[in-house]
Amino acid sequence: MSTIVIDNKSYEVKQGKNLLEACLGLGIDLPYFCWHPALGSVGACRQCAVKVYKDEHDTHGKLMMSCMENIKDGLRVSVADKAAQAFRSQVIEWLMTNHPHDCPVCDEGGSCHLQDMTVMTGHDYRRYHFKKRTYNNQYLGPFIHHEMNRCIQCYRCVRYYHDYAGGKDLNVFAAHNHVYFGREQDGVLQSPFSGNLAEICPTGVFTDKTLREHYTRKWDLTTAPSVCQHCSLGCNTIAGERYGQLRCITNRFNSQVNGYFLCDRGRFGYEFVNSENRITQPLIRNQAVEAVDETTLMGHMRKLMTDHTLIGIGSPRASIESNVALMQLVGKENFYQGVSDNVRFIEKRIVEVLQTGVVKTASLQDIQQADAILILGEDIWNTAPVMALAVRQSVLKTAAHHALKHNTGIPTWHDAAVQELVQEEKGFLANCTITASPIDEISSCIAHNAPDDLARLGFAVAHQLNGSLPRVLVDEDTLAEVIDIAVFLQQAKRPVIISGTSCYNEALIRAAYDIAVACKTPDKEVRLAYVMPECNSMGLAMMQAPSFETAVLRATREKNITAIILENDLYRNAPAMVADLFFNSVQHCIVLDSLNNLTTQQADILMPAATFAEGDGTLVNYEGRAQRFFRVFMPGQATIQESWKWLLKLQALRTGVLNEGELHPEDVLKQAEQLLPQFAGISASAPHHDFRINGQALPREPHRYSGRTAMLSNLAVSEPKPKQDNDSPFTFTMEGYSGMPPSPLIPFFWSPGWNSIQAVNKYQQEPGGSLKNEQAGIHLFKYNPHAVPVYFKDIPEAFMIRNDRWLLFPQYHVLGSEELSAYSKGVRELSPETYVAMSASDMARHGLTNEHVVTIKVFEQNWDLPVKADSSLPNGLVLIPAGLHGMAVPNWNAYVIIMKGNR
Amino acid sequence: MERPLTQYIHPGCPPFDIREYEMTGGYSALRKALSSMTPKEVQDLVKDSGLKGRGGAGFSTGIKWSVVPMGEDAPRLKYLIANADEMEPGTFKDRLLLEGNPHQLIEGMILAAFAIQAEESFIFLRWAYKKAAQLLRKSIHEAYKAGFLGKNILDSGFSLEMHLHTGVGRYMCGEETALLNALEGKRATPRAKPPYPQISGLYGKPTIVNNVETLCNIPHIVNNGVEWFKGLSNSEDSGTKLYGVSGKVNNPGCWELPMGVTIRELIEEHAGGMKNGYQLKGVLPGGASTDFLTAEHLDIKMDFASVQKAGSRLGTGTMVVMDDATCPVGFVHNLQHFFAQESCGWCTPCREGLPWVEKMLLSLEQGSGTAADMELLEMHTHMLGPGNTFCALAPGAMEPLQSALKYFKDDFEKHISLHKCPYE
I need a labelling partner for B285 at 20 to 30 A (CA). Which of A108, A515, A774, B81 fits? Predict the structure, then answer.
């Protein structure tokens, strides 16, 4: 700690920070633009000027940029100094000379950092009376709107997009007061992290284009803390609603999980909530009027619930509450996972490994802080994008750490100087995957192999680290890589091993674990991360139920089975043949879901489920972190209910016992804890429904929320009674506790004078640090330092190329492979066309060119797909895009026949 | 009077090739240093000589070098760069040296590189100096062939590569850190200091950037020693200086003279006095980014301390003379147009302030200026001061403006009261 003096008052502040961070951390408001906690300092905008004095006798002082001033003991500064204030106000006047002052029609208005800083400096009347310079805007794709005239040239966009996220197609062009931030020419932004531009930009240059389609000011949004539904990372989000429509997703800072950034799938994948394809009414099929009300439905259900054998098919995208409610309804022995056998097998292994407690799981923050990373098999760029962003930060930070060791004097926050020193150097990252991904360019070691060979490589690394483990015969090149990887993992203090389910290969899971255990020593922190397919795959897998195929088998053998399918399009999780067989075998089929799909078409009874925006629930992310998402708004139709609510009602029908009073999410979670001890503690993942501060509930609406007396005046002139929420500590109004809520309950970031997302500073212990009293969910896997590790050792055979068959694997795409986000217009637009990828030499050998269509045969299924060469793909493998909308699911990791078709 | 730097330069005649250069004592300093001196000794010699940077800032060259990490553990590669991006309006002294005696620069660079033990060197040349580019290419080739460049120079074990890099015409590249960024292929924006280039320069490695004229002095200091170098000068600053005069004088030009000649001597003796019918109204003593001096300052010595004391800067030592028939407002507007255009766009005050200043000066010149503009101009001269901006471009741009507002205030006010330029 250092003692510094600000305006004649002494403060104790942390060393290694800059003065701007220190001031903001102390609650002293200093305006800034080019600095950002995640980006560091470059000293460009000159907005954060303060007076710095040599010593207590210096009365004159010197204007210095606080973001470029290192904290040192005895530093004397003045923020309130007249000259410093005048300069800060002058900087705003300069920035405003060309700004269009179009706040009333600007999407950023009301959540604009430039507005906040302008007010903060006190600049008011403009003295510049010449013409403003203007720019042409660009088309940047379906997600980001571009309005260059508003630009204040803080350079944060390119520093984020280029330096932080590794994008290449957004740049700064021209010079002097014609500096331009955009692409070389109009076109879709190529980075899957482009949406963050809307939050990084301090004004309205880059804004959320999807929000524009149904625009609402930040202050008019009803918001709630939420958790992203589009992959297994569990990024924290804020979801905002008005007029019964979900309007936008923004980032919810959390130092352990996603920090400041989201991927485009997470940010723009929300439109399914507003989809016309939503199921809004209960249906009883095969009767004159299919749409029914709740009473009719329940009447109909009574018999089904009592006279039949019920089996439940759970869902990796439904909440723990819903899955557990289903398990309770049908009984443990009748509950199935709703994922295919091969996936369940791998996921079971993952859960097993993590439950041993031998190795800690790696949070995204741990990954950022790692000093060596091995990725074994998983294509994280496409299956867990924000993890790829975290991996990039590890690579950059490790290189910086290394460079700074020899050059004391350059502080870590000095972004420009650090980058200059680091140049092209990189921290260690080994990316061992089936084929190339954008991560390769930051990797020091790259291997593209068949999954079995990747697993062998992994076991070879484990052997290299621990000679007592079995040796693996690998070729010379691979051995060199193996040694390289082992050396770096051994030297590292905080190595992370990443694998996952997307290769459909269980040996990879074991290999990753063996490596982690083998490089564990008392002086280092080894961590392990397994990427899972969906947002609650981990939660579902932890329930340890049999696979969907087992349910199918049972359905074919038993009669009188009524299946209840929870939020699961089985045609996405199993080949159509298998799903068809299931539906033909069960007697009755009850489906709960929010959107119509192939499975809901098979339903005899369809029950409309709430989406994440309309209900409460808990998801367990890839690291076993249980996090709550909260209802943002009440659905327009009362018939839309959370699945767990429907299932509780069905249970009441079945048992004949009416619940005494209503059950809240935490009650269901408590039942989960009783039913399944592995969920111990999960009911504490967020404060309970009756949580109050000073006796007050928490408002979902900011105190400036407008129009509530007018919004529905076309229907009735008197203001409707606000809807009640009995499941969470939130109200649907602007009334309630106005201070800072505990971290899982932050519905929006706002602080007096800080209307933009930069208000996050005020919620943090120090700028960029963790939230005050941060509680980032509950960890369900407990680390056990005394656990005795057991190695797996069994090593798969090397992959053998077959002459007439290819091994089929999925190629994931950030945009397109995930079910729900594909309902968003922009996501659909940027999804790839279907194709089959083969190695160039395989194609040549079979006389195929990029113009050919081939027929892929798996068992009885055929796919006609255009073929394309993938120069990184090993021979003998083929890839087809995973999860594309409307594309049937093949058997992955199976041998297929390929027949040459027409050009 | 000795003119070591320009002794063998005869404008109009081709420069010496390597044979002629060696015959007149060229590369003898290099032979001497490589055979009998340590890098530290060369550094100390230059430090003791009192040589100050001739690019404008006037910082001691020897002290600048002494910060470079030396020894086995020093980061590698180390770089030596000649700043030949001469773009200061009114300045044309380096051009004389580049076109007149390229081997002198090359020898100076090899010596400087030896002193800091650099392995790579670059000449960053202004794009428009086409002739100099051609001559430098030829001369570097000759030096390689003669064994003065490349591996194991003169069997000393010291190796140095040299590259010529031509810029694309940005004034900003004259700033040493922007030059480094440009050389790396990045935008020519300056870097924050610290860290200084000696610690983290080109590609993040220890780097020295010296002006052409500075480097041309090195061989002569090595050959003739400290006392000789100090004796060349008639002021506190050692050596000779290339001075230039442009404007409405009878004989504009560039001359190597003892450091510390007076402005009067320069204008009246060497430049042949003002042209008939013109009076001297003001002088920018060291290029466009220095404060005006006036007729009352003619006896000021042109050395770093004396010019500073008079309220301006020696800068590059090449002065622009403003006569009494030229409108100071138009004159300053022209300069501000240049600076506004050459701002790199990195920091707010420079990017937004300079175009505003330029517009106000134009509106004054066109007769539509107001008293409020005068206040705003005055405000900018303070707000764009040193430290407030990221680099020295905007503070430099304010120097002629603030002194014009001081010395030629009447002219500005007449523009406002007459609603037109009184010089029209």
Answer: B81
User: Alpha carbon of B55 to those of A32, A346, B52, B165: distances in Å?
Assistant: 34, 68, 9, 18
Q: State mean pLDDT over A646-654.
A: 94
Pair of tokens at residue A620? 């367990």
Nearest residue to A891 (alpha-carbon basis) of A859, A869, A867, A866: A859
Give tens-digit pLDDT for A462-476: 999 999 999 999 999
**SS3 for A386?**
helix
Task: Identify the architecture of domain B240-323 in CATH.
Answer: Roll (3.10)
- b/e burial code for range A496-517 (CB count within 10 A of at least 16 → b): bbbbbbbbbbbbbbbbbbbbbb
Residue A660's pLDDT is: 62
pLDDT attached to residue B1: 79
Q: What percent of chain B has pLDDT over 70?
A: 100
Q: Which residue has the tokens 């230059």?
A: B46
Q: At what angle do helices B371-383 and B348-365 cross, to 10 degrees?
A: 150
Interchain pair A177, B345: CB under 8 A: yes
Phi-psi region of A119 (alpha: psi -120 to 50; beta: other; left: phi over 0): alpha
Residue range B112-156, pLDDT digits in tens: 999 999 999 999 999 999 999 999 999 999 999 999 999 999 999
What value does the mean pLDDT take over residues A122-140? 96
- Report, as an integer, the average pLDDT of B2-12: 94
C-beta separation of A212 from A234 below 8 A:
no
Q: Which positions in chain A have a beta carbon within 8 angstroms of at least one beta carbon in chain B?
A: 42-47, 49, 62-64, 68, 87, 90-91, 94-95, 97-98, 127-128, 130, 152-153, 155, 172, 174-179, 403, 406-407, 409-410, 414, 416-417, 420-423
> What are the extents of the domains in chain B?
18-231, 240-323, 328-418
Fold of the domain spanning B18-231: Rossmann fold (3.40.50)
How much is the ipTM here?
Answer: 0.96
Judging contacts by C-beta atoms under 8 Å, the chain A residues touching residue B343 are 175-177
Residue A487 has pLDDT above 90, yes or no: yes
Q: How far is A381 from chain B (nearest CA, A)?
A: 28
Between CA A524 and CA A521 the distance in angstroms is 6
Domains defined for chain A, CATH in brackets: 2-96 (3.10.20.740), 128-274 (no CATH), 275-339+535-680 (3.40.50.740), 357-532 (3.40.228.10), 806-900 (2.40.40.20)
Is residue B301 over pLDDT 70? yes
User: Token pair 């443990």 is at which residue?
Assistant: A332
Q: Can you list the alpha helix ranges (DSSP code H) found in A519-642?
A: 537-542, 548-557, 570-573, 576-585, 598-601
How large is the average pLDDT for residues B44-48?
Answer: 98
Top-level CATH class of B328-418?
Answer: mainly alpha
Backbone angles phi, psi at A832, to 5 degrees: -75, 160
Q: What's this model's pTM, rounded to 2 decimal places?
A: 0.97
- The neighbour count for residue A82, using CB atoms within 10 Å, is 9
Least confident piece of the model among A154-168, A707-721, B203-217: A707-721
Judged against a pLDDT cut of 70, whether residue A407 lies above it is answered with no
Residues A276, A250 contacting (CB under 8 angstroms): no
What is the rounded CA–CA span in Å between residue A366 and residue A414?
22
Annotate A805-852 with three-state secondary structure: CEEEEEECCCCCCCCCHHHCHHHHHHCCCCCEEECHHHHHHCCCCCCC
Q: Which residues of chain A neighbour B345 with C-beta distances below 8 Å?
A: 153, 174-179
User: In terms of C-beta distances under 8 Å and separation of at least 24 residues, what long-range contacts does A333-337 make, across chains too?
Assistant: A334/A309, A334/A310, A335/A311, A335/A543, A335/A545, A336/A311, A336/A312, A336/A545, A336/A546, A336/A547, A336/A548, A336/A550, A336/A551, A337/A313, A337/A540, A337/A541, A337/A543, A337/A545, A337/A546, A337/A547, A337/A548
